[in-house]
Amino acid sequence: MIRPQQCPVCKRPVQPADETTDALFPFSSERCRNVDLFRWWDGRYAVVEDLDPQVAERMQYDPDIEVQTDDRDSADRPSV
């Protein structure tokens, strides 16, 4: 059985997307959407990634550098 989608903030079920709720998905209300946005802004959520010091140094000088990971590498270290 497929469980209904839940709002990540209030955990209430989210109605299937239609014209009125499409802009709110995956949230149940505008309030929940704003709470989530504030949490990102406040730094409560973060995308954390371990970087090789050499890669971090290169990224400092060239922020547009693309970092790719090699899935075969057992250490899962990013490579440039």
Question: Low-confidence parts, pLDDT < 50 over ≥5 residues?
Answer: none
How many independent structural domains?
1
Structural class determined from secondary elements? mainly alpha
**The biggest beta sheet, please?**
2 strands, antiparallel
Percent helix range: 25-40%
Radius of gyration: 19 Å
Amino- and carboxy-terminal Cα gap: 44 Å
With strands numbered from the N-terminus, the spatial order across the biggest sheet is 1-2
CATH class: Alpha Beta
Query: SSE order in H/E notation?
Result: HHEE
Rough shape?
elongated
Second CATH tier, the architecture: 2-Layer Sandwich
What's the average pLDDT? 77
Question: What is the total tally of β strands?
Answer: 2
Q: Which percent band covers the strand fraction?
A: 5-15%
What is the CATH topology classification name? Erythroid Transcription Factor GATA-1, Chain A
Number of helices: 2
Account of the protein in words:
The protein is built from 2 helices and 2 strands, in the order H-H-E-E. The chain is 28% helix and 5% strand. The chain has 80 residues and is mainly α. The longest helix is centred in the middle third of the chain and has 13 residues, at 30-42.
Characteristics:
mainly alpha; Erythroid Transcription Factor GATA-1, Chain A; 2 helices; 80 residues; two-stranded antiparallel ribbon; single chain
